[in-house]
Amino acid sequence: MNKDTSMKFKNAETESYLMKFGWTSDRKVTLPAYIDISSTPEIVLSILANLYGIEFIDPDGYERTFLVHEAYIKDFESDMQEWKDDTGLNLKFFPLGSMAECGGILVLDQLGRFYLAGDELIYYGDSFEEFIDVTFYGRLCGISIRDNATTFFTYNDKDTDFSFDENKGWLETPEHRPRE
What we know:
Elements: H1 12-19, H2 42-51, E1 55-57, E2 63-65, H3 70-74, H4 76-87, E3 93-99, E4 102-109, E5 114-117, E6 121-125, H5 128-135, E7 143-145, E8 150-153, E9 159-165, E10 169-170
Antiparallel strand pairs: 1-2, 2-3, 3-4, 4-5, 5-6, 6-7, 7-8, 8-9, 9-10
């Protein structure tokens, strides 16, 4: 799969909002020592280099911090194995950060898709823009991934009637991820 690694946004207003916090689409920082560059996919390295160390505050005042505390790194692989076992998905996860109002850790998979691994595994999107649309603005809803890769809308806990595919992701278009 050849995925676009650019961090450009279709919505200029969103991009402008994020720039208030020091973010730019071409931002690149040195990666933290816990990232094994030789075994991490290029798409993940690109996203991490763009986001690592930055903190955003969404319009409701909640923090989105792209920095991973040492406590999460220590048990990261075993914690992620639990999500693989629970969902039946064979994904490789990489630590990304946290959200103030949610327990758990923000993670990327090997294809650069965004998730929250907390009380459940929640898919936030295939791109940083989709992640922002879910977690900042509520333009899209998150998708809870459960046993046998079945998926549920996070806002009402109803079955989406679509499974999550390891390679293709959520088998429906973002436009079908209503907030309510």
